[in-house]
Amino acid sequence: MDVKKIAVIGAGVMGRGIAQTAALTGFEVIMNDIEEEALIHAYSNIEKDLKNSVEKGLLTQFDMKQALSNIKLMNRIDEAGHSVDLAIEAAVEIMEVKQDIFKQLDEFCPSHAILATNTSTMSPTEIGAVTKRASQTIAMHFFNPVPKMKLCEIIRGIETSDSTVSIAVEVANRMGKETVQVNEFPGFVPSRINALVGNEALNMLMEGVASAGDIDKAIKLGLNYPMGPLELMDVVGLDTRLRNLEYLHKYLGEKYRPCPLLYKFVAAGRLGKKVGRGIFEYGERV
């Protein structure tokens, strides 16, 4: 199957990143969210990011205009899924939310369409089980920020067909991504490691071992990480990381128990860069 049209369900940080990357690489993109404000904010951020790339000489003006013209905004999921070849769900890491979206996509998308979840930890088998097309369900885990990060993890469920895997790999490659195929297991590969590293860094901050800035500096300079684990948590979103850890703790045991300080940050509304403050201060919503 030649994928031409993609629906991205969810216009948060990940959804808009996937939509931007797909549009830049020639796909027709329907970006969907139930919140009109979220769609407008996402499109504005995509436009801003593309303009920055033009100013830096990374894109031409023509490329930017073409990419923006490839994106259409819809807040009704039935309309968004109506004529697509692939739907990529990029909603919050809550199983019930993802399953509800997949039920709707199964109802509204064409029979040939593949349904993908961008989950970083959860089972595509469990998500796909609520549909009548489990063989066409897969996880395509992109990384934040999607336009810059090279990897897309491909995770098949128990019923996922070989042809679905091949199509998912081909789409990811056309979007400029390298792929790895990972056996379904909670957390997959990078998220499982990142959850441990970030949680331990937050435990050290809680224990007063060092300041947040010095913990990140030590990891970047001592272990050659491109970004400190605490800054990375802010980029991912502290609420998202908390849900990841709770899921991993449930299925993989005590070593993934979320740091108590993480609960405090989330309760205080300090969710990371997307709201302007998390472990660090950023000053404005992104």
Automatic annotation (TrEMBL):
<dbReference type="GO" id="GO:0006631">
    <property type="term" value="P:fatty acid metabolic process"/>
</dbReference>
<feature type="binding site">
    <location>
        <position position="33"/>
    </location>
    <ligand>
        <name>NAD(+)</name>
    </ligand>
</feature>
<dbReference type="InterPro" id="IPR008927">
    <property type="entry name" value="6-PGluconate_DH-like_C_sf"/>
</dbReference>
<feature type="binding site">
    <location>
        <position position="98"/>
    </location>
    <ligand>
        <name>NAD(+)</name>
    </ligand>
</feature>
<feature type="binding site">
    <location>
        <position position="93"/>
    </location>
    <ligand>
        <name>NAD(+)</name>
    </ligand>
</feature>
<dbReference type="Pfam" id="PF00725">
    <property type="entry name" value="3HCDH"/>
</dbReference>
<comment type="pathway">
    <text>Lipid metabolism; butanoate metabolism.</text>
</comment>
<protein>
    <submittedName>
        <fullName>3-hydroxyacyl-CoA dehydrogenase</fullName>
    </submittedName>
</protein>
<keyword id="KW-0560">Oxidoreductase</keyword>
<dbReference type="GO" id="GO:0070403">
    <property type="term" value="F:NAD+ binding"/>
</dbReference>
<dbReference type="Pfam" id="PF02737">
    <property type="entry name" value="3HCDH_N"/>
</dbReference>
<dbReference type="InterPro" id="IPR006176">
    <property type="entry name" value="3-OHacyl-CoA_DH_NAD-bd"/>
</dbReference>
<dbReference type="InterPro" id="IPR013328">
    <property type="entry name" value="6PGD_dom2"/>
</dbReference>
<feature type="binding site">
    <location>
        <position position="120"/>
    </location>
    <ligand>
        <name>NAD(+)</name>
    </ligand>
</feature>
<dbReference type="InterPro" id="IPR036291">
    <property type="entry name" value="NAD(P)-bd_dom_sf"/>
</dbReference>
<dbReference type="GO" id="GO:0016616">
    <property type="term" value="F:oxidoreductase activity, acting on the CH-OH group of donors, NAD or NADP as acceptor"/>
</dbReference>
<feature type="binding site">
    <location>
        <position position="144"/>
    </location>
    <ligand>
        <name>NAD(+)</name>
    </ligand>
</feature>
<feature type="domain" description="3-hydroxyacyl-CoA dehydrogenase C-terminal">
    <location>
        <begin position="187"/>
        <end position="282"/>
    </location>
</feature>
<comment type="similarity">
    <text>Belongs to the 3-hydroxyacyl-CoA dehydrogenase family.</text>
</comment>
<dbReference type="InterPro" id="IPR022694">
    <property type="entry name" value="3-OHacyl-CoA_DH"/>
</dbReference>
<feature type="binding site">
    <location>
        <position position="274"/>
    </location>
    <ligand>
        <name>NAD(+)</name>
    </ligand>
</feature>
<dbReference type="InterPro" id="IPR006108">
    <property type="entry name" value="3HC_DH_C"/>
</dbReference>
<feature type="binding site">
    <location>
        <begin position="10"/>
        <end position="15"/>
    </location>
    <ligand>
        <name>NAD(+)</name>
    </ligand>
</feature>
<feature type="site" description="Important for catalytic activity">
    <location>
        <position position="141"/>
    </location>
</feature>
<feature type="domain" description="3-hydroxyacyl-CoA dehydrogenase NAD binding">
    <location>
        <begin position="5"/>
        <end position="184"/>
    </location>
</feature>
<keyword id="KW-0520">NAD</keyword>
